Amino acid sequence: MADVSRRGLFGAGAGAVAGVGLAASVGLARPSAQAEAAGVSGQTYSPFGAHQAGVTTPTPAAARLMALDLRAEVDRAALGRLMRVWSTDIAALMAGRPAAGDTLPDMALGGVSLSVLVGLGPRVFELDGLRQRTPVGFQEIPAMRHDRLTDAYSGGDLLLWISADDFTTVAYAARRLVHDAAPWADLRWSQQGSWRGIGKDGQPATGRNLFGQVDGTGNPRGEALDRAVWSEDGWLTGGTQLVVRRIEMDLDEWDRLIRHEQERAIGRDLATGAPLTGGDEQTPLDFAVLRDGEPVIADNAHSRLAHPDHNRGRTMYRRGLNYADDTGSGLIFCAFQSDISKQFIPVQRVLDDFDALNEWTTAVGSAVFVIPPGMREGGYLAQGLLE
Ligand code: HEM
């Protein structure tokens, strides 16, 4: 994981004091010193290391994903130049320093949990000499019955996923990086989302999607997380593969359901995220329990169908974001895995056929990216692929 330094903007003590006034005046739980210590807010992540920051680092409140398309004339060498420029920018921005030539240097801040994750889309592997270096299992998502995809949120040759504690920092970094890519690439789509990884009591919590569900509980942890996510495939070792699906959620219809129906669709308690078979959020789901001859976790419940027990042990690491804008409301579903063809795609096929949630969810965007490993100091992103 990327190194975390505690060089916060104010330091933990002063930051906590600054938060007290706000909490007292509006009566909200503030991100606590514990939330900060657990990495949910107020962090400075290192841009260097085996992995890029922004994969398994905690999800801060604000994020923007941007896909760019390479200009037709860009070849492997030109892509290398762009990666060097971005890597230098990212190393500065994440450390809280302005990038070279920055016209707004006063906006650079440390201690705001900024991470910039860079990804490579399928067309990169059509460039000169790169086809045979396409990572195993990296492919586009085949059409699913419930998809209603639009170009507005699909595809892309490059990805920038910028996360921070606030949207001002995200907008600042986004503008700089898109500007500096201009000789080689143009913006294709941009989507903004947020996540609240801090619970009612100000402590780190799993977070909720816009259906009100606790979302992220079943994510693998520890060694299982490492096995699910990190690639050991040649130049990509320490990197991963990412699926981004913009999934529209029909909140009006969802709101018409009674709570029991909402819980039945997922197989978990809405208030706590615990399985309907009992326990707390982290209690394993028990698919065998019956009530009146019927499974308590329904056959078409999302938690059952997506579970590794029903997918030959397949897992992935989900790191979604909620969106609500002029286009609608939903989830920017993001899942990391070492092999898209063996992890996301088979699970998605099962869900497309049987998932209860299909009644209220529709994928409207789809994109896939290879996420290169982290860079070393003095090096650049995707160096192992491009040099
Ligand atoms: C679990 C919501 C789409 C894969 C869950 C859970 C919720 C949820 C509330 C239970 C808590 C948890 O374990 O995180 C949603 C919503 C979706 C959506 C609202 C669409 C808007 C998808 C898609 C996939 C997926 C497209 C993959 C193809 C999973 C997996 C789990 C899960 C693997 C964990 C199962 C386990 O190990 O227990 N989802 N999900 N979800 N979901 Fe989704």
UniProtKB/TrEMBL annotation:
Occurrences of domain Dyp-type peroxidase C-terminal (ranges): 207-375
Start and end residues of each Dyp-type peroxidase N-terminal domain: 52-193
Molecular function GO labels: heme binding; metal ion binding; peroxidase activity
Gene Ontology CC annotations of this record: cytosol
Cofactor(s) listed: heme b
Keywords associated with the record: Heme, Iron, Metal-binding, Oxidoreductase, Peroxidase, Signal
Pfam families recorded: Dyp_perox_C, Dyp_perox_N
Coiled coil: none
PROSITE patterns noted in UniProt: DYP_PEROXIDASE (PS51404), TAT (PS51318)
InterPro entries, sorted: Dimeric_a/b-barrel, Dyp_perox_C, Dyp_perox_N, Dyp_peroxidase, TAT_signal
Annotated NCBIfam families: Dyp_perox_fam
Family: Belongs to the DyP-type peroxidase family.
Record's protein name: Dye decolorizing peroxidase
UniProt organism field: Tessaracoccus oleiagri
